[in-house]
Every structure is written in C-alpha cells, then in structure tokens.
Amino acid sequence: MDLQLEGRTALVTGASMGIGRAIAVTLAAEGVKLAVVARRRALLEELAREIDAAQNPRIALIVDDVMSPEAPRRIGDAASAALGKVEILVNCAGGSRPLPVDAAEERWEEAMTLNFTRLRQLTHTVLPGMIERRWGRVINITGKSEPDRLNAAFAAKAAVHSWAKGLSREVGRHGITVNSIAPGRIMSEQILRNYPEDERKRFSAQEIPLGEYGQPEDIANLAAFLASPRGRYITGTVIPVDGGLRRYSF
User: Would you give the DSSP letter of residue 96?
Assistant: First the structure.
C-alpha cells in the first residue's frame, strides 16, 4: 500500500533507540523528511548514517534533553527551521518509573514531567502550524492501562490518553488527528536490561497469546499508517500493540 507520505515532514522524539528509532527508519523509507531528537548524539549520528545509506532523505539531528523546561520550544523551533514545517509529530521520549509507596514528591514530578508535561508542551508548540496548514498528525507512544504495581509512568501515560482524547475533539476540524499507541512488551534496551531471557520466555509463554515479545518495527508500522493520509478517519484512539497481552475486552 502506498501510504502517500512522500515529501511529508516529521519530528520524532526519543529516536536514538528502540521504538523511536524504528519509527524514524520506517518513516524515512516512506520518503518522509525527518527531524530526530534524543540526548545521545552518537546514536543519532548512527541513525542518520543508516537512513542515509538506505533512503537518503533529509534528516536533521536535534540533541536535547526533554526534561529541560525550555526544551519544547527549542525542539519545535529547531525542527521547523530544519524542515520548513512539522506535519507529523511522534512523541516517543519517555521512560518507566516504578516507585515505592513512600516515594518522594520530586520523583513523581520527574516522571510526570518526562512522560506527560513535556510531551504536551511540545505538541502545543507545533500545533499552530498544523492548524494553519489544516493538516497534521500527532502520535503518542504511551503504555498499558492495567497497572500491576505502582509506576509513575503508568499514571503519566493515562494522563496522555485523556489529554489526547480531548485534544482530538478540538483539532479534528482542522484536519489534524491525535492518536496514542500503547505498546506491550517490545524488545528494547530497557527490556533487555530489566528482564533476563528466561523471564522473557516464561512471560511470553504464559501471558502473551502470540507467544513472543514484539519488535520495535511492530509499533513503527502502525505509526506510519496513522501518520499517513490513509489514516485520516482514525483519531482520539488508544491502540494496543501487544500480541494480545491485555485482558480487557474493549
């Protein structure tokens, strides 16, 4: 299927590894011009070399720490300057934050800032341009809605879902869609660090109907469709990509 993405522009955060990197590579393969954001320059340069060797699109590297209060404006301005406009925003920066019941307030604030506040601020930074052009795509990479323990990232991602639903109802008339993708267990640097191979095998066999952890490309394929004109009638959704892991029926 031709996704009709040739020549579009996209800003992808958290692009140095895992899901964000896979989304950047997939969009580049569809002819999208990219601005990619992460803290680690060496990994972004490696990504740029991979994309240039394969597709040779225009790609801008933005090295920034999304935790900084000024980051959303800096990133939005840098992407607009490099690309001319931001038509597609993929919010992928974030991280898991398991916390004890007696965690200090600053640890909650850190998690909410990383996983919700900066995402929201960056989106609202690039939205005026999308509204002016009457076309845009906002895609949030979020997380599951079945907490098995106390994790500040789960609370932040739930906030993203609620905010994104409300935003989708405000901007739909401008030709802008807002969607969230909720990954299940996807192979990543964090997964490899936190879950030994024997634990991954046990969990896959007992909890995942498809019997395996997913790959970053499984998320990237859906993100590319939602970013495209083909996904024009999908908005305000939370779409799980988890191999059937979630147990709820809706």
Answer: -
